[in-house]
Fold this sequence. Notes:
Distance between the termini of chain B: 50 Å
Largest sheet of chain B: 2 strands, antiparallel
Helix content of chain A: 40-55%
Radius of gyration of chain A: 25 Å
Strand order of the largest sheet of chain A: 9-8-10-7-11
Strand content of chain A: 5-15%
CATH superfamily of the largest domain in chain B: MetI-like
Largest sheet of chain A: 5 strands, mixed
CATH class of the largest domain in chain B: Mainly Alpha
Mean pLDDT of chain A: 88
Shape of chain A: globular
Oligomer: heterodimer
Order of helices and strands of chain B: HHEEHHHHHHHHHHHH
CATH architecture of the largest domain in chain A: 3-Layer(aba) Sandwich
Number of domains of chain A: 2
CATH superfamily of the largest domain in chain A: Periplasmic binding protein-like II
CATH class of the largest domain in chain A: Alpha Beta
Mean pLDDT of chain B: 89
Shape of chain B: globular
CATH architecture of the largest domain in chain B: Orthogonal Bundle
Strand content of chain B: under 5%
CATH topology of the largest domain in chain A: D-Maltodextrin-Binding Protein, domain 2
Helix content of chain B: over 70%
Low-confidence stretches of chain A: 1-34
Distance between the termini of chain A: 69 Å
Amino acid sequence: xxxxxxxxxxxxxxxxxxxxxxxxxxxxxxxxxxxxxxxxxxxxxxxxxxxxxxxxxxxxxxxxxxxxxxxxxxxxxxxxxxxxxxxxxxxxxxxxxxxxxxxxxxxxxxxxxxxxxxxxxxxxxxxxxxxxxxxxxxxxxxxxxxxxxxxxxxxxxxxxxxxxxxxxxxxxxxxxxxxxxxxxxxxxxxxxxxxxxxxxxxxxxxxxxxxxxxxxxxxxxxxxxxxxxxxxxxxxxxxxxxxxxxxxxxxxxxxxxxxxxxxxxxxxxxxxxxxxxxxxxxxxxxxxxxxxxxxxxxxxxxxxxxxxxxxxxxxxxxxxxxxxxxxxxxxxxxxxxxxxxxxxxxxxxxxxxxxxxxxxxxxxxxxxxxxxxxxxxxxxxxxxxxxxxxxxxxxxxxxxxxxxxxxxxxxxxxxxxxxxxxxx
Amino acid sequence: xxxxxxxxxxxxxxxxxxxxxxxxxxxxxxxxxxxxxxxxxxxxxxxxxxxxxxxxxxxxxxxxxxxxxxxxxxxxxxxxxxxxxxxxxxxxxxxxxxxxxxxxxxxxxxxxxxxxxxxxxxxxxxxxxxxxxxxxxxxxxxxxxxxxxxxxxxxxxxxxxxxxxxxxxxxxxxxxxxxxxxxxxxxxxxxxxxxxxxxxxxxxxxxxxxxxxxxxxxxxxxxxxxxxxxxxxxxxxxxxxxxxxxxxxxxxxxxxxxxxxxxxxxxxxxxxxxxxxxxxxxxxxxxxxxxxxxxxxxxxxxxxxxx
Lengths: 424, 307
C-alpha cells in the first residue's frame, strides 16, 4: 500500500508539473493570438525614478492614441549593455533599446544588432534637422542613421558659490589660469576640502585635450591622436591639478564621484553633467551649488557631450510599429521628457521652452551645448575605455608615470586595437 | 512511463528483488527534479563552457571555432596573470585565517558560556547576510573618512585610503571575506566538536593533560573531517571570489587591477569586453586549478580518523 501511495504522489507531482507547463503555454498563446494588438517592448537602463516614470507615462499616452500598438517599458537594472547582450543571445531582445555613449553605440551598430532607420525616416518624412548635430552624429555611421537622440548632457563646471564667496572670489573661473588659481585658493587639505574633486577618468579629462586643440582620436575614429603636442598640453594641465594638490580623487575625501564630493562639502568645483542636478538637490539640499560653462583653454572651451538615442533591434518582429513609438518619443514626447525629467533636450527648437526659463540652473548647460563633442569610441574599445584609460591616467595623477609616458602608452595600446580591428 | 512500469511491478507481487527495484526507481523519481535541475543549470553550462573556450564570439556576432588559440591568448595576457596572482594570494591568506578563526570561535562557543545562543547568532549572522549588503556596509567602514579609520585615528594612526589605494584594496576585501565566512564555518566546526566523545577529554584530564594539550592532541586531530570540508569549501570559495570585488571596485577590479580576481576577469571578458572565448578559457583554467588543489587537499586531510 505504501508503495502505491508513493507512486500516486509522484505521478500526481508529475501531472501537476505537466499541468503547469501546459497552462503556461496555453495562456501565452492566447495572449498573442486573441487580438491584433502588436506589443512593442521598449528598454532602457533603470536609472533614476524620474526616467522610469517618464517613459512609463509617455508610453501610456502613446498607447491611448495608438489602439493597435501596445508599448511596454522594460527597465533593465544593473549593467545595462551586459544584460542587453544576453537578451540578444537568448532571442529575447526588446524591440526598442536605448543606445548609450562612450563607445557602446558603435558595438551594437557595427554588429548589426540595431537596424538602419533611413527607410523609415524617409517614408514618414521625419526631419532630423532640429536635432543638435553632436547628438545626431553620434548615432550615424556615414549616411546610415541608427538612432534618434533621446537626451544629452555636456560636462559643465559645478561649483559651490558659498566657498567662492568665503574665499573672496568674484565668480567661476573662465580660463585655465583662473581655474588653477581659484582651485589653489579654495583648497584646504586640513579640512579635507579641495579646489576640484574629480575621478581621473578619460571622460573627465578629454575636454582639456580638445580645449588645447587636440583630441583622443581623429574625427572619423580611425587614428589615435594622443601623441600630439596639443594633447600633451591638455593632459599635462589636468594631471598637474592633482600633482600640485589642488585637485583630489573622490576616494580621498570619502566619496565615490565628483558630484557626491561637492554635495558633501569636500569640493569647491567638479566637472559633471546635468545628471548631478537632481542628485544634488535631493541628496544634499543644504549644499549650495551653481553651474558655469567650462573655463576656456588655449584654443576654446569645448566640452564632452553624453547623448543617448532610441534604436530598433534586428530581432524586432514589428519594426514598423516600433518606429511609430520612436517617432512619438522623440517628437511630442521630447518636450515632456524635459519638463518631467529635468533632462537636457536634443532638439534645438526646445531650448527656449518655458521649463528652462523657470529653472535657470539649466542656463549654462544649454549655453555649453553648441561647444560640445560627443564622447564616443569605435567598436573594440570596451576594455580600453573601461579599464586601460582610467588605469593609465590614475598612474599619471599619482605621479608614477609622466603625462608624456602615460599618453604614449595610451597611444600605442589604442593604435594596436585599431590595427587588430582593421585586420579582421 | 516510469510510473506505469512501477504499477505493473506492484501487481506482480515479486520478492525482495522487485521490492528493491521499485525502491530504486522511486528514489530516482524523487531525485529526478534535482537531477534535471543539476543537468540543465549546472553540469550542462559547465560542459558548454569547455565548448565556448574554443570559439571566438562577442555575444552579438556569429561564433566561429578557433581551437586552442584562446588559451594561448590568455596565457600571454598580463591582466590574466594579475588576476591569478590576486586570486591565489587571496585564497592563501583568507582560507587559513578563516579556518583558524572559525575553529577558535567554535571551541569557545562549545563551552558553557552565558548567553551562548546570542553569541552563536552574532557570529553566524554575517554568513546569512547578502554579500552585496555586507560589501556595501564594508565600503562605508573602509571609507577614507569611515569607521575603521576613525578608530585608527583614535589610536594615533592615520588610516590609509583602503578602497582607493591599490596596496590596501585587496586586504580590505580579505577582511570582509574572513568576517563573513568565519561564522558559517564555525557552525560546521561546532557540529564536529559535538561528535567528539567526552570520555576522551576525561581520560586525558585524568592523565594530567593541560587544556592546551587536550586541544592540540584531541580536538584538532578529531576535527579532521570538519577541517577537510572547511578547507575544501574555503579554497573553492576564495578562488572563485567575485561578488565582493565586483561591488567594492564598482565592477572594474580597480584600483589599478588590484582587486581583479579570476572570476571577475571571466565576467569582464565575457560580458563587458565581448571576448567570450577568453572568459571561457579562463573558466577552464580556474576549474583545473580548483580541481588540482582539491585533490591535493584530499590527499592531505581526506583520510579517515584513526583513534
